[in-house]
Amino acid sequence: MARSNPIPAVPVARLLAAAALLLACVALAVGCTAQTAQSSSATSSPSSEAATAATAAPLSVCSLKGPTTIGLAAMIADQEGSDEPYAFEMAATADEIAPKLSSGECDIALIPANLAATLYQRTDGAIRVIDVNTLGVLYGLTADEALKANPAPTLADLAGRTVYLTGKGTVPQYTVECLLQAAGVSDQVTLEFRTEPSEVVALIQNDPAAVGIVPQPFATAALAQDDSLASVFDLTALWDDTFAQAADGQQAGRLITGVTVARTEVIEQQPEAIARFLAAHAASAAEAADDPAAVAPEVVDLGIMANASLAEQAIPLCNIVCLTGSDMESALSGYLSRLFDLAPEALGGALPGDDFYYLG
């Protein structure tokens, strides 16, 4: 039987050399794996940051029950399927919103124009305006047959009359006083302030010679309930006509009810989020202006109005807008300048600085 060849002996030195080579290869493989892991980690960092951003708390948005929220209605309705949800909160008065801005509980707020200027002064610039959301919403209603028969009544026709209105110390008072002063009849008109628009409507129903300055959407509801009343003044149109023709050379601005402000800290830390909000707000406001019938049911769901048909009629009269950038600045700065000339305390004692206007 043939014998198999024996396995040749391997010198110990050669075995040690082979073992050393194997260890070197293992070490090299481990190093490459670690380097690959680090590289993979660095490559995935932006995704991780994006995931972190996606899970960050949504921006809180506070608004008032009324026209300013109507401009948000489409945004609120689309919340469920939104890629970037917001925490919306609707308040009855601006006094509920102001402390939340100061404390950081509210990131973005839709508030009266003069309150925004006042808060800017009080907080040393901790808030800035990012858009104008509502132009004028004030209308003059009356049962007076002479005014109703006048095809083009002016504020001069208010001489000798009593005008009832809400909003003492806020936009309605200062707006009406500015217009009466420009018409030269400020000392011939008696202004009587009431707390609720419903009180104003009741007074003008009982006193046909009186005029009531009533905001939307209450004005539309009042006209629907009492056909003896008629709208004889659109204060937004009066403002444009009065100050466009003013000879004092002062910037006219627009009649502005509401602006949108954001905390300066949020603007500086999350400019992209602010830009996305502005884009969404512009689309929502455009939908309200262009398709009131589509937005009216949401206005009812929000409790702003009780009737979708009346809401559809009122929405176009609310002058919902989303003015940003230089359009916002020129409209608002001119308006605030007029108010400041009349009553500096309305703006916290001073006109806001240029940094009050966030131009994007």
Primary descriptors:
360 residues, alpha/beta, D-Maltodextrin-Binding Protein, domain 2, 2 domains, five-stranded mixed beta sheet, 49% helix, globular, disordered N terminus
Description:
α8 packs across α11, α10 (218-225) crosses α15 (308-314) and α14 (292-301) crosses α15. Residues 1-54 have low confidence and may be disordered. With 360 residues, the protein is α/β, with parallel strands linked by helices. The protein folds into two domains: 60-135 and 255-356, 3-Layer(aba) Sandwich (D-Maltodextrin-Binding Protein, domain 2); 138-244, 3-Layer(aba) Sandwich (D-Maltodextrin-Binding Protein, domain 2), CATH 3.40.190. It has a six-stranded mixed sheet. A five-stranded mixed sheet has the order 7-6-8-5-9. The chain is built from 16 helices and eleven strands.
